[in-house]
Amino acid sequence: GYRARSAYKLKQLDEEVGLFGPGNTVVDLGAAPGGWLQVASERVKANGKVVGVDLQRIRSLDLDNVETIRGDMTEDETKEKLTAIIGERGADAVVSDMAPNMTGEYSLDHARSVYLARQAFEVAQELLATGGDFAVKVFDGQDLADFRADMEKEFQYVRSIRPKASRDSSSEQYLVGKHFLTAPVRKGD
Ligand code: SAM
């Protein structure tokens, strides 16, 4: 079984838009307790690699193709560690299920969620190989349209998906950017 029900959301995203394939390198932001890591590990197979990051310690999954980092994705130190692991070839997919601690105040929760989503977007632009994909959780609200417009500049197209596994009342959705247009020139390219 999976460690988190959210595993089914990632499965649905992957089925709808095709995020992973065998041999892929995948970065998973906000990865604890590890449900998405389990799904990604299955999809990339033994010759792929999945790197998960979370503020919380991720209890070992005992999967040979998974590596985890404990860190805050809003801090440069964590981003640098991740870049060092991913290396010059870049990642095939960056996925983020990061969520703020909910206060119940709709506009505050939305603003914090967009802030985390933008952090993930920044990391995706640093790490993705050209043609790579990015999926990010974000809560509904007034800043969503601007964020989506910014993503649209960097990907061939963007889709918004509300997985069935998300609670009906939930304001969460996932924006998926397909086919990253231009990876930055990386050392060694
Ligand atoms: N996808 C995960 C799974 O399937 O097990 C569930 C992720 S949970 C919904 C959201 C996670 O985002 C939490 O574990 C939280 O610690 C993490 N998170 C929130 N802010 C973060 C940050 N700044 N840096 C790293 N992780 C963060």
From TrEMBL:
EC number: 2.1.1.166
Top enzyme class: transferase
Positions that bind S-adenosyl-L-methionine: 34, 36, 54, 72, 97
S-adenosyl-L-methionine is among the record's keywords: yes
Keyword Metal-binding: no
Signal sequence region: none
Record keywords, A-Z: Cytoplasm, Methyltransferase, rRNA processing, S-adenosyl-L-methionine, Transferase
Enzyme active site: 137 (proton acceptor)
Molecular-function GO term, any one: rRNA (uridine-2'-O-)-methyltransferase activity
Gene Ontology CC: cytoplasm
Catalysed reactions listed for this entry: uridine(2552) in 23S rRNA + S-adenosyl-L-methionine = 2'-O-methyluridine(2552) in 23S rRNA + S-adenosyl-L-homocysteine + H(+)
Family: Belongs to the class I-like SAM-binding methyltransferase superfamily. RNA methyltransferase RlmE family.
Role of this protein: Specifically methylates the uridine in position 2552 of 23S rRNA at the 2'-O position of the ribose in the fully assembled 50S ribosomal subunit.
Protein name, UniProt field: Ribosomal RNA large subunit methyltransferase E
Native species: Haloferax litoreum
Section of the entire sequence shown: 15 to 203 of 257
